[in-house]
Design brief:
23 strands, alpha+beta, 5 domains, 29 helices
């Protein structure tokens, strides 16, 4: 995410640079004779403010760059801010504008002195104020008002909107252009990207403001975000007035936000108090409980608020009284140095010092260096023993910078690039010099390479790339550069992007094979996401991609000049910067390629790339004419292979027949004894089982807060995925309607021993029967460090061997198969254990509901044993009633499926009838 932040800052610098460049021209458009002294001073003050902001952002960027990886530094290096030396140009524009403003100011002051004999520092009287002077008084106050920068965070939108509207948008004295400029300079990140290309015109301010309002005025998302902030409140770890004040400020800000969003927060007393008490320090919690005493009536939010405020005030007063009369050592003033130097990519942790003028900047940006001819630059590099590739202070063979000359792609700095004529002269001069024997071989190699470069005109290949927007299921998005490769069987995404967007990851055991049958690293899983073009379009596609830590080196091999490719002008390009060397975060394989390709090809002159029309824009690819030495050839064909050794091992493990008779371990025998001693049947014949604890449940700590947090995160995901939300709601509704769970009537009266099961859904898009499978997590640890599963017996593995089941199934001429629907939930949990199976749910109205699960719950480590053992008990208890069904029940069972048969249709029908009656006997498994 750091590189994305730096790119956003660079875009902000470009906007500020444009503002500085146009500052003087905008003032003089009204005519020099109409410009008042006050207006000049206003613009001059504003210019200085913009320049200070420009320098601050520039310094922040230069400090952040060394923390990037080598690939990321390569990518940033080719940004237009550095390639066009925007800092130098902006500084020159600023100084020129200051000079012009001062000249204009002197002229205006001289004119004033001739007509009004008043001191220069005096303000105009109220009687002689013109409209321009009045505008100055209002404008001059604006720069000192602090408007926070809005970075696209939805929780900060309302604050920014109200403040900006009050201080800027509602001011009639400001022109629409000025309002738009103020707006753009107070945006960053995704919010700035949304409007960065908007021209500064009168009519565009309202359009831009409406666009931001429409984009971020999402009440549902704002509520979800505020809820998440509520559940993630920072805990007060110690008895401190400062910490409690911060906690109080945070909770009250959230409370007011809920009120602004018209949430029924006045009805949330119990929920808010519960969350807050979980976040308070131990001593404050004790005082709160002491204040409540033995009352059984739930406290109100006002009572808790008054307690919190009183507690905060008393702690602060106590801390201040402790500080009185205590002599504190005087603090040494910290030296603050403001740097306005340029960025250096050749620097390490030390500050870059120019070896030519000793200034705090990279030598490539030194005016003394850049003003010299190439030969003198070469002499400086040689004399100072600088790296020919990056101008650093190390030897060229130790250089880690992968950047090359932007003009020829060779390993030297662009500033010392020589034309072919100059290189030929240097070569002739070098050949006339006498060579020592030790240098002969090196010289010969250099001459051969140089000759190849001069006499061959190679071609550089452009591969098809696209700028796309990847959107996660939670609504997070990011622009990526993708390589479109129809030679790849799969799509691949960079692992860093998966982590940044919190994309869901599923296990995937895949090896990738490239050119020459060489295997790449195995994938780190597979993920899915929504993909859209970088421009406004109705096209979007859900895609899956395998995950790798790194995909390719930056492409193309070096940047190109596209000015001569006029046939590409006025096209909606999939990648507007296809000619620039950039890193790749996504490879789009052949499957998606077939979905985006459209009719339409545009060709230019020979040795120019072609453009192919797609649903994500025009993609550009092909050979281009370029003089090049040993271009780095890149091929990205990828296919899938499975590791043969692993496949064979798994095959033989599956085929292996176990002939050993398994004996029960002590843990398994204890679990069996527990089942025999504690199982029972209700009036309808259903089995009731108890959870087999191997350790005391008293070891369980608090699990409710964690379950609430996970439910809140799940609820937020529902807002961004309505189909997922509907499936989950249907599941919960069905669970309750079937009496497999019930609501807790008095959630305030919580027992001492209780466990809340966090839950989440696994969405299976291609499943024909169950699209959503809800998983209950009995392994979630409580505050004591123990989970419920850690305290339970797992029981013996009663599952039949699949091989034996299949052999049994193939013995018969006529066969049948059946299954028990919701097998686990056909077995009841003992009422004593219900509170160990609690779950949290937030309904459609935003109400927090507590349920207890009344049946055996998958997700508990003992659930498979309890379900299968209850079925075996049914065979023991009722088997004599259905003798024909018993062989199938014993030999043909695999989990909840049954396979059986007979040699005649008549016998098979009899067996099927008894199997059906046996399973439904007294509604045990019906």
């Amino acid at each position: 995410m750091r590189i994305q932040h730096i790119e956003n800052r660079l875009e902000q610098l470009l906007a500020l640079s444009q503002d500085i460049e146009n500052s003087y021209d905008r003032l003089t458009t009204i005519g020099v004779n109409n410009i008042s002294n006050a207006r000049i001073q206003t613009r001059l003050s504003n210019l200085k403010e913009v320049w200070e902001q420009f320098c601050l952002v520039h310094n922040a960027v230069t400090i952040s760059i060394p923390e990037l990886s080598d690939d990321e530094q390569d990518e940033i290096h080719y940004h237009v801010y550095f390639t066009d030396r925007i800092y130098d140009r902006t500084k020159e524009d600023y100084l020129n504008a200051i000079e012009k403003f001062n000249l204009l100011l002197n002229t205006a002051q001289n004119s004033t002195n001739e007509t009004v004999p008043a001191p220069l520092t005096a303000l105009p009287s109220t009687q002689t104020l013109t409209s321009n002077d009045n505008t100055y008084i209002q404008h001059s106050k604006l720069p000192i008002m602090k408007i926070p920068t809005f970075d696209g965070s939805s929780e900060r939108w309302l604050e920014f909107k109200n403040l900006f509207h009050s201080l800027v948008a509602s001011k009639t004295s400001l022109s629409a252009i000025e309002k738009l400029q103020y707006l753009k300079t107070h945006l960053s990140g995704p919010a700035f990207n949304l409007v960065k290309h908007t021209p500064l015109t009168e009519e565009n301010f309202q359009k831009t403001w409406d666009l931001l309002t429409e984009f971020y005025e999402n009440t549902r998302l704002l509520i979800n975000t505020t809820l998440q902030s509520l559940f993630n409140l920072k805990r007060a770890t110690k008895e401190s007035g400062t910490e409690l004040q911060q906690f109080y400020s945070d909770i009250m800000q959230l409370y007011r936000t809920f009120e602004t969003l018209e949430c029924p927060v006045d009805q949330w007393d119990h929920i808010l108090i519960f969350i807050c008490t979980q976040k308070l320090d131990v001593e404050s919690n004790k005082l709160w409980e002491s204040q409540l005493g033995s009352t059984r009536k739930p406290p109100s939010w006002k009572e808790f608020h008054d307690f919190l405020f009183s507690r905060m005030s008393s702690l602060q007063s106590f801390e201040k009284s402790q500080q009185k009369g205590v002599l504190q050592p005087a603090k040494q003033p910290s030296a603050k140095v403001h740097h306005q130097g340029q960025s250096s990519y050749a620097s390490s942790d030390k500050k870059s010092v120019c070896v030519l003028c000793k200034g705090n900047h990279y030598i490539a940006f030194c005016s003394k260096y850049t003003s010299k001819p190439i030969q003198q630059k070469l002499d400086i590099v040689s004399k100072q023993k600088l790296c020919y590739n990056c101008l650093g202070t190390h030897r060229v063979d130790k250089c880690r910078v992968t950047k090359r000359c932007q003009k020829c792609g060779r390993k030297h700095h662009t500033s010392i690039h020589q034309s072919n004529y100059a290189q030929s002269k240097n070569k002739e001069n070098a050949e006339n010099k006498k060579e020592s024997p030790s240098n002969t071989s090196a010289k010969t190699e250099a001459k051969v390479l140089h000759s190849c470069h001069e006499n061959s005109v190679g071609s550089s290949i452009l591969l098809a790339t696209a700028r796309v927007v990847v959107i996660s299921s939670t609504g997070q998005s990011r622009k990526l550069r993708a390589l479109i490769d129809q030679g790849s069987e799969v799509s691949i995404i960079r692992e860093r992007v998966v982590q940044q967007l919190n994309l869901p990851r599923c296990h995937s055991h895949v090896s990738l094979t490239g050119i020459g049958a060489k295997k790449a690293n195995k994938t780190k899983g597979i993920t899915s996401f929504l993909l859209k073009p970088h421009f406004q379009s109705n096209f979007e596609v859900q895609m899956q991609a395998h995950i790798l830590p790194k995909l390719t080196s930056p492409i193309p091999s070096f940047s190109h000049n596209k000015d001569n490719w006029s046939h590409l002008n006025n096209l909606e390009l999939a990648d507007p910067e296809f000619h620039e060397r950039r890193s790749i975060d996504l490879i789009i394989g052949a499957e998606l390629y077939s979905k985006i390709i459209e009719e339409g090809i545009i060709k230019g002159e020979p040795n120019t790339p072609i453009a192919q029309f797609t649903k994500i824009g025009w993609i550009v690819s092909g050979a281009t004419s370029l003089n090049s030495i040993n271009p780095q050839v890149q091929s990205y064909h990828v296919s899938i292979t499975d590791d043969l050794h692993d496949l064979l091992r798994r095959f033989w493990e599956t085929e292996e027949i176990s002939i050993t008779t398994k004996t029960l371990t002590k843990d398994e025998q204890d679990c069996e004894n527990h089942f025999q001693a504690n199982h029972s049947r209700d009036a309808n014949g259903r089995y009731i089982v108890k959870i087999p604890f191997k350790e005391s449940p008293d070891k369980l700590g608090d699990s409710k807060a964690k379950a609430i947090r996970q439910m809140a995160n799940l609820h937020q995901k529902f807002a961004n995925n309505q189909s997922h939300a509907k499936l989950y709601n249907d599941f919960i509704d069905e669970y309750e309607k079937l009496d497999h769970m019930k609501r807790v009537e008095n959630p305030q009266n919580e027992p001492d021993r209780v466990y809340y099961l966090p839950h989440h859904g696994v969405y299976r898009e291609h499943s024909l029967s169950t699209k959503l499978r809800v998983v209950f997590n009995g392994s979630s640890k409580t505050t004591s460090g123990y989970s419920l599963n850690q305290l339970l017996h797992s029981g013996a593995k009663l599952q039949k061997n699949l091989f034996n089941v299949l052999i049994w199934f193939r013995l018969f001429r006529y066969v049948f198969f059946a299954d028990i629907e919701k097998m686990y939930r056909q077995i009841l949990a003992h009422p004593d254990d219900w509170d160990f199976q609690r779950i949290i749910w937030i309904d459609k109205l935003g109400r927090l509901i507590i349920f207890v699960l009344l049946t055996v719950t998958y997700g508990l480590i003992c659930a498979p044993f309890l379900a299968l053992r209850a079925f075996e008990q049914l065979i023991l208890d009722e088997g004599k009633r259905f003798p024909l069904a018993i062989p199938t029940m014993k030999n043909g069972r695999y989990v909840d499926d049954f396979f059986g048969g007979e040699d005649t249709i008549q016998k098979a029908r009899e067996v099927v009838e008894q199997v059906d009656n046996f399973s439904a006997w007294r509604a045990v498994f019906s």
